[in-house]
Amino acid sequence: MDQATSQPMVLIETSSGDILVELFPDKAPATVANFLHYVDEGFYAGTIFHRVIKDFMIQGGGLSMRMEEKPTRPPVHNEAANGLKNTRGTLAMARTTDPHSAAAQFFINTVDNPELDHSAPDAEGFGYCVFGQVADGMEIVDKIAKSKVKAQGEHEALPVDSVVITSVSRFEL
After folding, report:
1. What is the CATH number of the domain that holds 38?
2. Could you tell me which of 136, 150, 141 has the C-alpha nearest to residue 111?
3. Is 0.90 topped by the overall pTM?
């Protein structure tokens, strides 16, 4: 990692360890601004990684330990056509089937996921917006990805032992 980088960094502190992420406002300005708004207001403290799928990704940032969805701001416009790819270690916005429904939840790709990349400006091909990259702590991501999971209600891949996001904050080098 280049110590002279001017890209914003965030530290995701979890019950499994810390993950340092570099953000790309030059590629996804609205998405990064939206994410940093949630970071600055302390939104992510006490949320969990509620969807952990082996050889795919870990998703979190929207549900409390009681599995209650936190209220969010309006969704952000999908910036997936920014040229960034859903490769191992990238941070991307989670969303519903509506391409422009991403609000606060995010995921970290644990493998290359080209099927999540932007391929067309329609509902099927819009893709998932990559807006950051793990700079340090990929071993923590991998540890979380190996969590034993269970189905609970509508959640098919909930870690048996909760992985809590204790804090997400801006990180200065």
Report:
1. 2.40.100.10
2. 141
3. yes
Structural domain count of the chain: 1
pLDDT tens sequence across 144-162:
999 999 999 889 999 999 9
Tokens of 102: 């991403």
d(CA 102, CA 98): 9
**What does the alpha-carbon distance between residue 149 and residue 143 come to, in Å, rounded to a whole number?**
13
CA 99 to chain centre: 16
The answer to whether position 4 is within a domain reads: no
d(CA 126, CA 163): 30
- DSSP line for 8-24: -EEEEEETTEEEEEEE-
Note the pLDDT tens digit of each residue in 126-145.
999 999 999 999 999 999 99
